[in-house]
Amino acid sequence: MTEYPTSFERPQPGADPADPRGALLRSSAPPPAPAGASALPAQGRTGETPSRPGTGTTAPGTTTPCGNGKDPSGAVGSDGTGPEHSQPATAETGTHRPRPVPEAEAIPVQPAADQDRTAVSQAGQERRSGQGLPPGRPTPMRRDGDRLRFVGAATRRIARGIDLDEIVMGLCRATVPTFSDAILVYLRDPLPVGDERPTGPLVLRLRRTDRIPEERDTDGGFTPAVQPEPSELDTIGTELCEVRPGSALAEVLRGVRPVFTDTPAARAALPELLGEGSEFVVPAEQRAILAPLRGRRRVIGAALFLRRPERIPFEADDLLVAAQLATHSALGIDKAVLYGREAYIADELQRTMLPETLPRPTGVRLASRYLPAAETARVGGDWYDAIPLPGSRVALVVGDVMGHSMTSAAIMGQLRTTAQTLAGLDLPPQEVLHHLDEQAQRLGTDRMATCLYAVYDPVSHRITIANAGHPPPVLLHLGGRAEVLRVPPGAPIGVGGVDFEAVELDAPAGATLLLYTDGLVESRLRDVWTGIEQLREKLAATAQLTGPDHPPPLEALCDEVLDMLGPGDRDDDIALLAARFDGIAPSDVAYWFLEPEDAAPGRARRLARRALSRWGLEELSDSVELLVSEVVTNAVRYASRPVTLRLLRTDVLRCEVGDDVPQLPRLRQARATDEGGRGLYLVNRLARRWGATRLSTGKVVWFELNRG
In terms of C-beta density within 10 A (0-12 exposed, 13-18 middle, 19 or more buried), how is residue 17 classed? Predict the structure, then answer.
């Protein structure tokens, strides 16, 4: 809100033309008013015609502040002195006063001493204090209108801040140099949040200082304890101050109201706040104000406003200004702390809902990005995931729950957990989406989400994809060609009663699959299909930069994709998952079927020895034969169908044994009299990693060994 002045001063005949405000008229006048008297400024009225001579008129060269022809005590004397709020009368008849231009929403700047806002006499002495003002020094605010405009602009500046640092900086920048020459802001450490009751002692920490950056601060002014930086005052005394119960500082803070530091209570509190020697730092008389900062529940800090000795002291009305500044700042700090706590909770919630790190499955490299919808909407329903599966496969998942609220994030977390559980059962992609749809219906009737679930097999170089109303993925081939995969769209999760269809596609080595949410391709400025086409073109253009034989790096590719977002394209949060298919060459895979008979373990040892000899890994033969024999023995003991044995040579040597028994083996400590139960103990001691995964047709027990 912009405030307009209610009175305007115009240059009059006989005024000093060098005075930019228009000098007060100087003429003979009755004796000055007694001490303590004040004169109200004359308010000009629209359309008012000045009186003429002979009828109670005022001739040019005289002034009538009250505008009624009387001879008030506040008239300007012949020496140029007079009440500071007196206004010159209008010398022209029927002259229209133009409407003033509204002022910008900024802190009113005080005039310099040569502009004489307080009616400095010709001798250069200020009337009230009798002190001369050096040229260029800001003069104090004397009018109530000045104070109101300052408080309005300062509180608007403080209210713009959304976090703690912005609010404290707004307070400092608003008060220096208009209201004070320096300011020190102390805040409670730690700051209480909301209705929390502090448990420890009251400790104040110097949060920020600010001052007028001038060369000569000690030349006739107050002496800082250390040399200040160009824009900030270094710490005066100790940075931390513990407020002892019953101390002078505690009493001042309990009083809530700002006080001058020349009062006994405040003077006794300064050494506790600033440290010993503060009497040499803070100017004498009413040139410092100590204002407690009280939030909604309790005092959360204090602000110290300082003026140099050459500047006119604070007045009683300045305590009201300091109280307004302290109140608005304290309430803003309270809200900023609450907002910071909510933002922290939102960030932690979103972080825990998304994968902390991506796995490193064999034959595929992964990269991801997540961007919230806006700074004020840090949580949303978008998620991505990569889940290792048996047989060196990996499940790639990306989904989007409607909305960007805590509820959306909670629903997303439940659906993501459900998807991980279903993936562990090694269900086909269409079955995973079917069970997710049932889960969404159990969570509520309006729980809608889209999801895309894909399973990549690095051995067969194939990928199986099922879609539930999600934007289709984009495949970037090694040569630089980008295509949008034709995947049945399906219905969103939560609709119910809909069958999902899966398609199996080639996933050539060197290709990159990009899964994303609609926030990347859809906004108010473009529809989803236009965005998908722009994404495809962006991927193709990025691939051209690295040449046809070298795919672009995954991390750089994700950054390039996000660069396609322009100003106004961020209407929704974005989840992005990129997968680079390296695959496993057929020459690095050995696969056999073993009949469930007593001779199967011996045959498995011979087959493993031959494969290792072919790969040049003879040094691993003893360990591999021992572990393969133990795992195959456990499998054929309970299996009714052929047992599978597969060796994979990648950066490690991986062995997988599958059977049709769903029960998973458990590691246990065998007793001395037990004949069995030591096979998994040997696997656990010799293998780099091992595990067991339940399949829809049984289970797979696997282990890995370092290649040396």
Answer: exposed
